Amino acid sequence: MQNKLIPSFGRRKARKLRTQSQKAYQELLPLLQLDSPQKLFDQASSDVWLEIGFGGGEHFCEQLEQNPSISMIGCEPFMNGVAHLLLLLAPEDYERVRIWHEDVRHLFGIIPSSYFSRVFILFPDPWPKKRHQRRRLITSEFINILQQKLKNSALLHIASDDSAYVEQIQAILYHHPHFVLLEGPPSADPLTWSSRPKDWPTSRYEQKALNQGKKCAYMVFQKCEISK
Q1: Angle at alpha carbon of residue 2, lines to 171 and 150, rounded to 5°
Q2: Which domains does the chain have, with CATH numbers?
Q3: Predicted TM-score of the model (pTM)
Q4: Of these residues, 103, 125, 161, 162, which one is catalytic?
């Protein structure tokens, strides 16, 4: 997956960063940026979670606050989102945060097997136009590689407000040999979707969807060993 990847994200930068955001981006990112295996957390002493596409970082920071014993890697190619997260972080959290500022699929090249105990993929770009759907992040190939990086019994949280993407996710994961569905709607029909579970911190993109009157699908999977 290292070569000729079709980007699963759009732009890398939007509006010009404000002075404070630019300062955080230039000064803090080099301290927290993950760019080699040597900057990974020690598996023996850290319970590591991953958020893929953390947007503005609100959900990421709330998880840090609610779970003071964990460490987190946040993956986000969008410069403005990374700058916003850096402004939200407390200095005492720096030692347990790493930021991957590129496509998450390149991250897997430096992550050992059985590393993460929880992964969040919340409201990934659904690429609704048919000609763009090959850019969707969640594919069988992606999930098969991701599962190798998860510990046994690790949790995978996925949320989306796009019924066509939910249908694709369900087709890939609901009967996947390495995952058990713990929570999720029975179909891709929004009429079957329940409200957000209480233990799911909200995110900016979720709130945007709800403000537009959309329903959201919330799914939790657990990695399991294949019976021999």
Answers
A1: 55
A2: 19-223 (3.40.50.150)
A3: 0.91
A4: 125
